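Hi D.,

Good news: the full-assembly prediction came through. Inputs first.
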Amino acid sequence: MTAQTLTAQREQEALISGCEAIAHACRLADVDVITAYPIRPYDTVMQAVAKMIANGELDAEYIVAEGEHSQFEVVKHASATGARVFTGSSGVGWFFAMEAIVVTAGLRLPVVAMVGNRALDDPGAFGVEHNDALAVRDLGWMLPWIETAQEALDTALIAWKVAENPRVFLPCGLGMDGAILTHSQAIVKIPTKDQVDRFLPKYDRGRLRLHPDNPVTIAPQVNEDWLMEIRRQTDQGMRNAREVIQDAYREFHQIFGRQGGNPFVEEYMTEDADVLLVGQGTLAMPAKVTVRKLRQQGKKVGFVRLKWLRPFPTEEIQQVLGRAKAVGVIDRDYSFGSPSYGGVLFNDIRSAMYPVKSHPHMQCFICGLGGREVTIDSVTEMSEILLKTAQTGRVDQETYWIGIRG
Amino acid sequence: MATASVEVVYRGIFQRHLAQRVVRGIVLAARKEGKIGISFGRYSDSPERNGIPAKQFAVVADTEEELQAYISKYEPTNNDVTVVVDDTLAKGLESWAWYGLQPINKLTQAGGTVLFTTMQSAGELITHIHQKDQPYNLAIVKGTTHFSGLWVYKDDHTDVRVLGAIAKVAPHVVSLKSIEQAIREEWADELKAASARKSYERVTSTPVPAGKGNAETPFAFEMPKWQDMEIGLVIPAIPVKEEVEGWEGGFRPGRNPTFKKFTTRTMRPVVDFDVCTKCTICWLQCPDSCFDVTPDGFYDANMEACCGCGVCEAVCPVEHCITMVNEQAFTDNKSQWETWKADEAGYKQWVGKTIANLPERSHGFRFVGQYQQELAAAKEA
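Then the structure:
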């Protein structure tokens, strides 16, 4: 990135990775405090941000912590004082920080963190699996999953806007597939600072701000007389987020001309589809290619990309999937011993479909674990299984492991 | 087919083991009669705080099915017997979870018994105990208050004397015979069994009609709905100063409106304003900022904030200016300074009378050899 681009008065294009796109979002959002601790594949973002600070392009407190736990503790506290923050991690690093990550939602702190999705040890592996970020699925973290570098930049800006809305005040984890998204470079439109300033207001914590001028106690010990009310408040924040996300996308579209359409689900050739595949993250790319190929053969296959797992778009999912005869959920994750031995996404989506009167047959495809490619062949195999289910009206097997030897 | 429950109200840490022995004793004794039971502490009282009122319970039932109704409870609400092992708890209790002030007889069932270990009479106790809509009985096991610690236990037989008394006042809960059997098995001590028997014979019980007792409305507050609570676990700070009308020149620190320390005290400071030199030391040293600075520069211990620790007495350089006095000597939480202002001579007389009997001011450990002295005195009596 050249100095000319950074001070540009109009949108510029750059060939950058997903991690670099996030770093640009940090710069444009004028983040105050960033904490870092290296772990692949998240760490590219900390390098990119560090460079920007060194070059004088971003003025932020950049703290390299002694581990992920401290990393998340520091941003949590900074956020309580009214600082806009960014941090991130991957795989077991995210788990090491879990105590701090859990309380961040309870304290209603709008921490934005990038999760460079990575398989959990053991065995040590660098490739993508979604189980790291999924660990906070039930804990009050908003969870978008991102497909492209452009979407990474855009979603990060949206994440601050939503998280810092007083009706929400919840942390947001940006799900970014390791390697495929974090490390490959694509053409990204970089907006101007002026555009971003119009979109993203200053973070104002108001009467909740931890500051000598606004003396407050935070994080007290409570007993059973208080906790249920506090949980319900967090629940309400997540419910409010639905509407706040919608508003944020609308505004984003007005200012930047991107991210129109439904913020929560992307539909690809779903109109008259008999069978639908659902998935999140970068596997959308091979899925879309496969759908196009199968359509050429006259097979009525479509793809639905889930863009936000939390808050979960129940109505949209019910409406879109309710039209199909058979639905297959592609899980780049596992949930050992779960209902039907399916993935996390599968069981969430299947549960959302239960109230739909004529709900489709539901099948689960565990695929692409540990960074294994989700190939055109794999998606074709899934589609064929679904087409057979739609045709026979019978589910032969609920969960398949696709692309596995043996 | 029946269940019965007993609550033991005690001061945290100092009487924990005593309370535990009583509730365990009840369950073990009931077992001798083929009943089944559980004993447990009120979860919100744990971890216990020094001297903060706490509760333990024993529930016994004829069948396991009947007992199940109590197994997931934190606090049984209809007790056959409420045992109170410190008489200053007659004024009620607040656990550290701050539910507001709970009258000591609130969870005693109609016709049940509130059983005190005390040297006071029923007449004296009833001036402190809040009125109840239903009649109940006030029983007394005569004795000084048992206080020990977390790591030591003073085996003064208070445990078995309470057990023996329960067999008398509530024989449907457990019989004396079973109590004695349980004592022999649990402690292998014939003397303790004899103590239980003696207590069974000596315990006195007085019926208390509905509506008799302290007429004060106990301090209570409404718990907010989730919509009304601040989000983010944020609690606004207490203001540094509370504005008090007509207090120009004075200073009253801001205080938490719901966190009152009425029942954490077993003693309170009595201030003789006539000898006070306004040296400020009590005010500076009080760990709870409980002193209000009056407009004329005196230091008035506010009884909503005082936990009765006695630091003020210890640091006061003037003899008999601040004196800690047993909480049972007081029936209200009024400002001493205001009483003094209204009638200086009358107040002086009251101070003299109130601090005259110093050794009785507190109970619990004060000096080595105290227990032996108390035993000797008790034998003489």
